């Protein structure tokens, strides 16, 4: 089946449930989380709707629990805010289709080819931001799917070593972006608020994308212990 037609013919919601993933908004403590899947609209870097009828954010049960914990931490500290999810579990067919759209372009290096599957393709990654309760996102200094240096949160490679992925490292780098004129002080404050909340829930940002959060678990372990969303 052509990759471009996969999302039109597969019931992604049914498949997510078949793979034992959970809809984040059905969990206690997550009712106020706002979900706006960027790849279920054309409002994304490839300008195409790749999820069609999929509008819910699915994760493995244990990963979802950490996202819920982050929401609880955020609401306790900042009652006027909520998490806004842009992407969650992603079928491998969509990953491969996405890669095909950027093949041979400058964006190619930002999109995994789908040969093995990344964290989104196992239901253990989330793309998100902080928003007001009406869903209006806070200024993070760079938009979702911004591939410029302004979107980064760290200048060194990501590792499974927590000593290299802590608030001291992130704060120094984000404040450095302000000094270089790449983001505003207000955006830096918002970005560090998000990092702190997610960090306290046990999730860490990918160095080039302020919106992407994951566990410290090595990718080799993810692939050996998790089930690839092979649809």
Task: Give a structural overview.
With 231 residues, the protein is an alpha+beta fold. It has a single domain (3-225), classed as Muramoyl-pentapeptide Carboxypeptidase, domain 2. The protein contains 7 helices and 7 strands; from the N terminus they run H-H-E-E-E-H-E-H-E-H-H-E-E-H. It has helices spanning 3-9, 12-18, 61-77, 92-102, 167-179, 185-200, 219-225; strands at 22-23, 34-35, 58-59, 81-87, 125-132, 204-206, 209-214. A 5-stranded mixed beta sheet has the order 2-4-5-7-6, covered by helices on one side. The chain has a two-stranded antiparallel ribbon with strand order 1-3. A hairpin with a 2-residue loop joins strand 6 (204-206) and strand 7 (209-214). It is globular, with a radius of gyration of 17 Å. The N and C termini lie close together (11 Å).
